[in-house]
UniProtKB/TrEMBL annotation:
Stated name of the protein: Corrinoid adenosyltransferase
Pfam families: Cob_adeno_trans
Pathway: Cofactor biosynthesis; adenosylcobalamin biosynthesis; adenosylcobalamin from cob(II)yrinate a,c-diamide: step 2/7
Protein species of origin: Paenibacillus haidiansis
SUPFAM superfamilies assigned: Cobalamin adenosyltransferase-like
Catalytic activity: 2 cob(II)alamin + reduced [electron-transfer flavoprotein] + 2 ATP = 2 adenosylcob(III)alamin + 2 triphosphate + oxidized [electron-transfer flavoprotein] + 3 H(+); 2 cob(II)yrinate a,c diamide + reduced [electron-transfer flavoprotein] + 2 ATP = 2 adenosylcob(III)yrinate a,c-diamide + 2 triphosphate + oxidized [electron-transfer flavoprotein] + 3 H(+)
Entries under NCBIfam families matching the protein: PduO_Nterm
Superkingdom: Bacteria
Record keywords: ATP-binding, Cobalamin biosynthesis, Nucleotide-binding, Transferase
Top class in the EC scheme: transferase
One Gene Ontology term of the molecular function aspect: corrinoid adenosyltransferase activity
Gene3D superfamilies named among the record's database cross-references: Cobalamin adenosyltransferase-like
Amino acid sequence: MAIYTRTGDQGQTSVIGGRVHKDDERVEAYGTIDELNSFVGLAMSYADDTLFADLKADLEQIQQELFDCGSDLAFVRGNEGSFKVGSEPAERLESWIDRYQAENPVIEKFILPGGTALSSALHVCRTVCRRAERRAVTLSRKADVNWEAIKYLNRLSDFFFAAARTANVRQNTPDVEYIRSRKVFRNKS
């Protein structure tokens, strides 16, 4: 089976319901999600199977859901009945965030992205996720989109932040505060 089709040689690509230029906002949105999914796979490769079994399972589920988000954003003429992402994945992410946050020390200031290789990779996931969300919002100003997919991306970047901090905690590597940061995080009482 050949993986090349030559159908994109003139700068266009197929989306669900038509063809668009390869730099179309829709392609930028789901292409950035594809990029994020690749970085999630890279992060998983840094995770020890025993120490991070829970995180690896969560990340694999996230990879599946990122394909769903990309698919939903690829619809030229989508409707709610055809979308794959509903409210449940974002709600589940909230419970996962809470679970990882319970392991993390309290912070009041911004932290520098980094620490262990896994934590660093998860911070890359966080920033690419934010870009994917921005691209999806840009698309939403010109086309109908599944807002549940955008909500999911918003929550997912928070997940990556919490998971990156947990990766450092479990490997006994402290976060490094940004030294000129004011107190920006408030602790829940």
